[in-house]
Amino acid sequence: EPEVTQTPSHQVTQMGQEVILRCVPISNHLYFYWYRQILGQKVEFLVSFYNNEISEKSEIFDDQFSVERPDGSNFTLKIRSTKLEDSAMYFCASSTGGKTQYFGPGTRLLVL
Amino acid sequence: AQRVTQPEKLLSVFKGAPVELKCNYSYSGSPELFWYVQYSRQRLQLLLRHISRESIKGFTADLNKGETSFHLKKPFAQEEDSAMYYCALSGYNTDKLIFGTGTRLQVFP
């Protein structure tokens, strides 16, 4: 069964550094999402992406964040200048548009 | 405000006991409700959604609009049901999922 994959599984970075989190959505899916979960807190929506543009974003998704689909398979989340509070588990998800979202295993980001 | 509340952080039961994981929501309009499950060291996966009205792995959930609830139930818990369960909602004109804080279900032998 096809699955969403994410790399890396863990990333440690210094505050102020740029990070890029990568996702490979399920191949016939057209809608892509990023969520994050700070330790001990709820899963929070960051952004949705369709047809090569952002369709919706949350208040969390400020100018430090960006998303891109650089080729036909990858979907990336970039954090330009990481802060301590960006430490979280980041989940990518994809769907065909029918509201059922399929999640990746997550990338655990630690900002020191 | 759009919100999903799961009042229990942890629910512990013995195998064979009934289980009810509570979920209440706040949403102006007609949301779509979901239950996601995360087994140990695995990804979040959809368990069921209210519009499907189906039973998955013996679990059912009924949307009660009057009480704004979507409780997850199973008559006889199994050890393999031990996992983190998240209730979530999605609105009419949006795909974004709003999650509750999750309830950890522990089923003891």
Report on this structure.
The complex is a heterodimer of chains A (112) and B (109). Chain A has no helices and 11 strands. In chain A, the strands form 2 sheets. In chain A, strands 2, 4, 5, 6, 9, 10 and 11 form a 7-stranded mixed beta sheet that branches. In chain A, strands 1-3-8-7 form a 4-stranded antiparallel beta sheet, with no helix packed on it. The radius of gyration of chain A is 13 Å and the shape is globular. Chain A is 0% helix and 51% strand. In chain B, 0% of the residues lie in helices and 43% in strands. Chain B is mostly beta strands. Chain B has strands at residues 3-5, 10-14, 19-21, 24-26, 32-38, 45-49, 60-61, 72-74, 83-90, 98-99, 103-108. Chain B has no helices and 11 strands. Classes of the chains: A mainly beta (112), B mainly beta (109). The A-B interface holds A 3-4, 31, 33, 35, 41-45, 48, 55-56, 58, 91, 95, 97, 99-106 and B 32, 36, 42-46, 49, 86, 88, 90, 94-102.
List keywords for this structure.
heterodimer; A: 112 residues; mainly beta; seven-stranded mixed sheet; four-stranded antiparallel sheet; B: 109 residues; six-stranded mixed sheet; three-stranded antiparallel sheet; 11 strands; 0% helix
- What does the average pLDDT of chain B come to? 93
Oligomer: heterodimer
Beta-strand fraction estimate of chain A: over 45%
Pair with the biggest interface: A-B, 25 and 20 residues
Largest sheet of chain A: 7 strands, mixed
| N-to-C SSE string of chain A, H for helix and E for strand | EEEEEEEEEEE
Stretches of chain B where pLDDT is under 50 for at least 5 consecutive residues are none
Topology, number of strands of chain B:
11
> How would the global form of chain A be characterised?
globular
Distance between the termini of chain A: 37 Å
Q: Give the biggest beta sheet of chain B.
A: 6 strands, mixed
Rough outline of chain B: globular
Radius of gyration of chain A equals: 13 Å
Q: Unreliable runs of chain A, pLDDT <50, ≥5 residues?
A: none
Mean pLDDT level of chain A: 94
Helix content of chain A: under 10%
Order of helices and strands of chain B: EEEEEEEEEEE
Given helix and strand content, the structural type of chain A is mainly beta
Strand residue content of chain B: 35-45%
Instruction: Tell me how many strands of chain A there are.
Output: 11
The number of helical runs of chain B is 0
